[in-house]
Every structure is written in C-alpha cells, then in structure tokens.
Amino acid sequence: MLLEFDADQRLWQETVRDAVSKQCPASLIRDIAENGVDPASLWNSYVEAGWTELTDQDNAVELAIVLEELGRVTDPTPMLATLTQFAPLVGDRFDPLSAGAAVYSGVTATRDAQGWVLTGTDRFVLDGDRAERMAVVTPAGVFLVDLRADAANVTTRRVDVFDPVLHVAEVSLVGVRVADTERLPADTERARHVALMGMAITMVGACQRILDLALEHAKSRQQFGAAIGTFQAIQHKATDMHVAIERARALCYFSALTIAADDPRRRLAAAMAKASAGECQALVFRHGLQMFGAMGFTWENDLQFALKRAKAGEHMLGGAAEHRAIIAEEFDAADL
C-alpha cells in the first residue's frame, strides 16, 4: 500500500480545500452558531459538486480527503453522518441527494404477519434531527426508514451539545412498520470501520485547524518585545501538536486504504485511527488553549469551534481508551 497521495489525489485535496475555504468560511460557522442560519445551501453545494457520491469502496481515500477538509472548517452539514454512517449500511439504496443518519442502538425489531415493527430509542444519533432517511441497526438486522414517506411514529429531538453547530438528536421509534424489502443485507462490521475512519479523519482536520490558528497567534502575539513563537516552550508545544496530528493522519489514511482494498486489517486499522485521533485531540486541545492563553476561552475567538469539533469526535463511536482495548485484544489473539 502506498502511504502518499498520488498526483490526482493531491489535485483533489487542493480542489476540495479551495472550495471549502470559499463556501464555508469561519464567518458562516459563527453566523450558524449565533443566529441559527440554515446551512442548506452549503449542503446543496456539496451535492452539486458530487461529493455525496463518494460511497464506493474504491473511493475511501478520496472521501477521507474531503472529510479532513470539512473537519478543518467545522462543517455544519450532515455530510459526515450521511457518507460514513448511513451510506455504508444502505448500500445501493443510497440516494446522494438526501441526508441520512444511522441509529446504532436501542431499537428492537419484531416480526408479524404484515412485516416488521421497530420500537425503541437511541439518545445520541448524529444528524438524526435533520435526516430524510435512517438506517436502523437492530439485533434482527438493518432496516431502512424513509422519513419523507412516513414519519408519524418517529420523533426526533435535537440534544444540546457543547459544539454549537453539531447536530445530535434523540430518536424514538414507536411501532414503526417496515416491509421485508426494507430489511437490508448490510455488512455492519465494515460499515463501522467506515464510520470510525470518517470520525477520526474529521477530528484530525479539526486538530490541524487548532494548530494553524495557534501558529498564526504565536507569530503575531508579542511578549517582552518578541513574538511568543520565538519562545522555546511555545515551539515545543507546537512541535508536539504537529507530531500528534501527523501520526493520527497517517493512521486515518491507512484505515481508508484498508477499506478501499477490503484488507482484513481494516478492523485493526479503524481502531488505531480512532484511538490515535482521540489521543491527538487531547494533546492538541490542551496545547492549543495554552498557546492562546485567556484569549482561547473567549466566545469571540474562532478557536472554540475547532476545539469543540475535535472534542466531540472523541465522545462519539467510542473513545481512545475503548479502541486501545480493541487493539490490545487484536494483538493478543494474533499469532505473532
């Protein structure tokens, strides 16, 4: 496996970065957080650009490139949930024009003469409050629920979280009827690997944004007649942040490569990516705030959005400690 981008991938990264920086500036994120502006036009621009069609296994690396750039700008759309959580569960039933979400737990399915009945509640569903379709994972299988056709027995309530532009919702299904045709032959294990990779690379993008802002501040902030970036303590923190980000980024793209190649190491690679991203955000969060000082705690500072997105990722789909335990189990079971 090659661990460097080829010419086409570098061009793709530059194209995505340029588009995102223009369409999703920091001012838009602040406007959404403060005034509740609807990011629908931004989502539509992703759809028109064809980014929501990156669902094929072969496009895992290209999808990761997009998600890293979206993490860098604190993307406010349902892109992450739709492409990395919903799409891998529904396969060829995916619609690139519609936002989706995945309900991973809390719901049971029972069989009767007319089909299946879904009942239960998942308290934390990424973008569950604005999804048009849902993939519901139950012990009996994965079911597709189209909220555009029938949402009478599905209730969603957005949950307050510390990231002001992240949508997390409590989703309740009460006697939701689905036909046999809506029971999907999903590979839930592979879908989880894609979800972990997507969350991890999004965190890496957010951490890179923290470092970029911290370096910009260190170059301009003066203390004792010199830029604070000339102080050894600041340089050490910046170096530690850079190393942590590069390590996590490399593991995320390795995870994407294993998904693209359907490599049996993808379970281990996904766990390594999420664990490394979680450890990365802990260090970058702490050092980023320390480099800014008291200014880093103010609402007026755009640093907060990247900090909150990176930290939110650690609390979704299992934290670093959980995935470190999975890695340990893998190596313990391996015949090395």
From TrEMBL:
Keyword field contains Transcription regulation: no
Descriptive protein name: Acyl-CoA dehydrogenase
EC code(s) of this entry: 1.3.99.-
EC top class, as a word: oxidoreductase
Gene: acdA_10
Cofactor: FAD
Gene Ontology MF term list: acyl-CoA dehydrogenase activity; flavin adenine dinucleotide binding
Keywords, comma-separated and alphabetical: FAD, Flavoprotein, Oxidoreductase
Family: Belongs to the acyl-CoA dehydrogenase family.
Organism: Mycolicibacterium vanbaalenii (Mycobacterium vanbaalenii)
Superkingdom to which the source organism belongs: Bacteria
InterPro entries registered for this protein in UniProt: Acyl-CoA_Oxase/DH_mid-dom_sf (IPR046373), AcylCo_DH-like_C (IPR036250), AcylCo_DH/oxidase_C (IPR009075), AcylCoA_DH/ox_N_sf (IPR037069), AcylCoA_DH/oxidase_NM_dom_sf (IPR009100)
Residues of the Acyl-CoA dehydrogenase/oxidase C-terminal domain: 197-329
Pfam families: Acyl-CoA_dh_1
